[in-house]
Amino acid sequence: MSDNYLRLVSYDPHWRPGEAAAREAVTILRDVFPRAEHIGVEFEEGVTFFDAGANTESINCPLCGGDLEDWWGEAMDRAASSGFEDLAAVTPCCHGPTSLNDLRYVWPAAFGSCALTVVNPDETSLETNQLRRIEQAIGSQLKAIWQHL
């Protein structure tokens, strides 16, 4: 059996919400996804990569649009060796400076130390106004990552 996850991760990989803000965001998510199997907050020890799993289609340069899939694995290995503390990278396509967090992941992915997680949300989208409500409650702009495992 496969599972679907919605993970909401801050654009800032090191950002963590306060407990009250996290509880409020979870309450909103329960209203938005009443049939979800589980809704909670994951606090990681350090920075973690939250990917789209089987939904992942491609990884592209945010500067020129070039395909980065062949380069990406080695770049991830380098970043992982520092516990993802340094996400800076220079792309091989246009030799531009960027961050692994800023690459164009199709479907979205992100680095973070905290994620709001919805397990099997029984929905396939999150409306913009719903996301804004959650962002206001938790205190950070969030990237929605739809993961299929």
Descriptive account of the structure:
The radius of gyration is 16 Å and the shape is globular. With 149 residues, it is of the alpha+beta class. Helix 1 runs antiparallel to helix 3. The protein has two domains: 98 residues, 2-Layer Sandwich (Alpha-Beta Plaits), CATH 3.30.70; 50 residues, no CATH class. The chain has a four-stranded antiparallel sheet, with helices on one face. Strands 3-6 form a two-stranded antiparallel sheet. A two-stranded antiparallel sheet has the order 4-5. The longest helix is centred in the N-terminal third of the chain and has 14 residues. Helix content is 25%, strand content 33%.
Short description:
By secondary structure, the protein is an alpha+beta fold. It has 3 helices and 8 strands. It has a 4-stranded antiparallel beta sheet, with helices on one face.
Poorly predicted runs are none
Q: Quote the beta fraction.
A: 25-35%
> N-to-C terminal Cα separation, in Å?
9 Å
Radius of gyration: 16 Å
The shape is: globular
- CATH topology of the largest domain, what is it called? Alpha-Beta Plaits
| Helix-residue proportion | 10-25%
- Give the helix tally: 3
Q: How many individual β-strands?
A: 8
Class by alpha and beta content? alpha+beta
- CATH architecture field of the largest domain: 2-Layer Sandwich
Average pLDDT level:
97
Order of helices and strands: EHEEHEEEEHE
Q: Which class of the largest domain in CATH terms?
A: Alpha Beta
Major sheet summary line: 4 strands, antiparallel
Which strand order do you get reading across the main beta sheet? 2-7-1-8
What count of structural domains?
2
